[in-house]
Input
Amino acid sequence: MIPRINFAHLPTPIESLPRLSEVLGGPKLFVKRDDQTGLAFGGNKTRKLEFLVAEAREQRTDMLISAGALQSNHCRQTAAAAAKFGFECILVLTGQAPREASANLLLDKLFGARIVTVANRADRDRVLQETFDKAVSEGKKPYLVPYGGSSPTGVLGYAFAVEEFVNQNLPADWIIFGTSSGGTHAGLVLGQRVFGYKGKVLGISIDESELWLKTHVSSLASEASQRLGEKIEFSPDEVLANDGYCRAGYGVLTEAEREAVRLFAKYEGLLLDPVYTGRAAAGLIDLIRKGFFKKSEKVLFWHTGGQPALFADRYANEI
Ligand SMILES: Cc1ncc(COP(=O)(O)O)c(C=O)c1O
Output
């Protein structure tokens, strides 16, 4: 038995996006609402945390430590999970703490997480290790939740998400989503193989190169397959990734993300986030305009959450 605590709101609904399909003159568009997975505004991390928190419990730890950007959705959901299941929580966040916390950072504090800030991303691994070691020296038993929850354990959340999706009987030709630390991507690729999803799985990169994603996602999916009692070796060539939309850099809003957020809101009443789903949707919109998909195809946009970031000071004014 794979340790799992079932707290996500599953299955997440699938909705069609007819007005957006029409205005873009594109294929039939659908969305899978993983922004509604529950746990503090939802998002893709809830699925991963079902397995990660279960592992943390099994290892008899009492504290979750993780790291990310100042407005990390992953850290917000980790802090919420810690609160829900009685763990202490420390988050190592990159950036300069603002005088007043907003959005995800505000929520981190509300969940009682202790925040350690680190000015440069280059120092993050070191500070994370020091934070971990200090907690141990103080008699704590910390569990390190990896960046983005993207360990082979976290990946299982998205492998089983494909089982859920296949059972929803939408014969989508494509699954499109935002990919960054690769855990969601690896889970979808693994689930595609194990649960027999026939369409294609294409990750739009938020910040990593196509080469890095192909290499990292294939090895993560191969490793995670062993947890399912399979021994699948994925090759980098099997992983589809597009890094054509992340040149501006992580979290930097361009007209493309702004347009995507506005179009989804205006035509479907659906909220994207500025950093992840906004960028992934911008890629989707561009691919539609370039005629990448056949008009007869069904394209599913897998929403991965992140909307609290809309209210971060740095994005609210720009959107
Ligand atoms: C809203 C949102 N979408 C997508 C991603 C990317 O997922 P992954 O890190 O599994 O590649 C993240 C990661 O933090 C996220 O917060």
Q: What stands out?
A: The mean pLDDT is 97.
